[in-house]
């Protein structure tokens, strides 16, 4: 039986996240990377990048076409999927262009700088029939999927409280320091947790109340949000670019257990009826969320299925929640309702 032909992907934006994405293609079953595009020729001299979660691993560029503009890419390379790892404010522009040019699109988070641009991305996907998925990596991390399944299945009873924290220092690249481009820590970093809360609990909260400061960029770079879910759990999340060291944690307090996530592949469960801690470790090979999200999207394309785990309408909701958080923070913690 003949092997099925792999889809071909081109990646645009070879910075920090571009490197992480690029290392995920070598072992993909249904998708191969055939080209990388970046306007800076120097970017191709680095085969590895490091960000707050560690090193990307090395990318072999020997058989991958290198392009310096989107126009050059589409004229010289045949491909099926555009993987967008550009700065946030460029996501909508290039996603829309690519779908109109008949390419499917997987795009790094956040979906877009503004909700109105995210809406245009969805409209274009519907008009062109091209699939669109935003790479919200926590939705594809086994440890966070464990928490999701525990919540959905009632494994430990009702979720009473959720606490999420994602804090580090200000990134070095210039565009992060321009809130018109990055949205500050609130949209770039904290959005991971806002999106996961939206995903875990099945939609937007009734309202948000955010206390935050604009210190380094003019964006909201250090914040704490309370998310109001009537008759639901108490939910809060902290995000910051103003801390000296990196810290990330997610703790779910259920009726019958406390579930703690630290890092990418370990979950600790403290059950009320059992002494000690149950530690659940996922294989390192299964715990790369960037690999998982790319593999999932490729399978959706081949099966002509919607990416139900990460529908663009859902990630648009995450942008809307983040916009309400910024409005609340700039009003010194005034509660902001969501439709």
Structure description:
There is one protein chain. The protein is built from 10 helices and 17 strands. The chain folds into 2 domains: 7-137 and 289-310, Rossmann fold (3-Layer(aba) Sandwich), CATH 3.40.50.720; 139-286 and 318-337, Dihydrodipicolinate Reductase, domain 2, CATH 3.30.360. By secondary structure, the chain is of the alpha/beta class. 31% of the residues lie in helices and 28% in strands. The model has no long low-confidence stretch (mean pLDDT 94). Strands 16-15-14-13-9-12-11-10-17 form a 9-stranded mixed β-sheet. The protein has a 6-stranded parallel β-sheet with strand order 5-2-1-6-7-8, with helices on both faces. It has helices at residues 16-22, 70-76, 91-100, 115-128, 142-153, 179-182, 184-188, 191-201, 289-303, 312-330, and strands at 7-12, 31-37, 50-51, 54-55, 65-67, 81-84, 104-108, 132-135, 159-169, 207-213, 222-228, 234-240, 242-254, 257-261, 266-271, 278-281, 336-337.
């Amino acid at each position: 039986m003949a092997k099925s032909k792999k889809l071909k992907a081109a990646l645009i934006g070879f910075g920090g996240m571009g490197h992480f994405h690029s290392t995920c293609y070598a072992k993909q079953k249904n998708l191969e990377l055939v080209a990388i595009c970046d306007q800076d020729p120097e970017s191709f001299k680095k085969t590895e990048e490091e960000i707050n979660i560690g090193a990307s691993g090395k990318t072999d560029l020997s058989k991958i076409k290198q392009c310096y503009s989107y126009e050059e890419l589409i004229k010289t390379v045949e491909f099926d999927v555009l993987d967008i790892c550009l700065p946030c404010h460029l996501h909508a522009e290039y996603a829309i262009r690519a779908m109109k040019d008949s390419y499917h699109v997987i795009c790094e988070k956040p979906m877009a700088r503004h909700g109105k641009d995210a809406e245009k991305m969805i409209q274009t996907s519907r008009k062109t029939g091209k699939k669109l998925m935003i790479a919200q990596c926590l939705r594809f991390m086994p440890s966070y999927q464990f928490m999701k399944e525990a919540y959905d299945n009632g494994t430990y009873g009702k979720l009473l409280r959720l606490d999420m924290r994602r804090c580090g220092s200000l990134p070095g690249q210039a565009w992060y320091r321009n809130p018109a481009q990055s949205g500050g820590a609130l949209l770039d970093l904290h959005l991971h947790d806002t999106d996961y809360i939206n995903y875990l609990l099945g939609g937007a909260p009734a309202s948000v109340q955010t206390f935050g400061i604009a210190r380094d960029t003019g964006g909201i770079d250090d914040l704490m949000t309370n998310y109001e879910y009537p008759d639901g759990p108490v939910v809060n999340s902290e995000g910051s670019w103003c801390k000296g060291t990196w810290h990330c944690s997610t703790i779910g307090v259920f009726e019958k257990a406390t579930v703690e996530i630290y890092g990418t592949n370990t979950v600790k469960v403290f059950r009320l009826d059992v002494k000690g801690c149950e530690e659940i470790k996922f294989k390192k090979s299964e715990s790369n969320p960037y690999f998982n999200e790319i593999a999932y999207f490729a399978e959706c394309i081949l099966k002509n299925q919607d990416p139900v785990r990460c529908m663009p309408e859902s990630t648009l909701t995450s942008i809307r929640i983040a916009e309400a958080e910024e409005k609340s923070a700039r009003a010194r913690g005034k509660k902001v309702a969501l439709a």
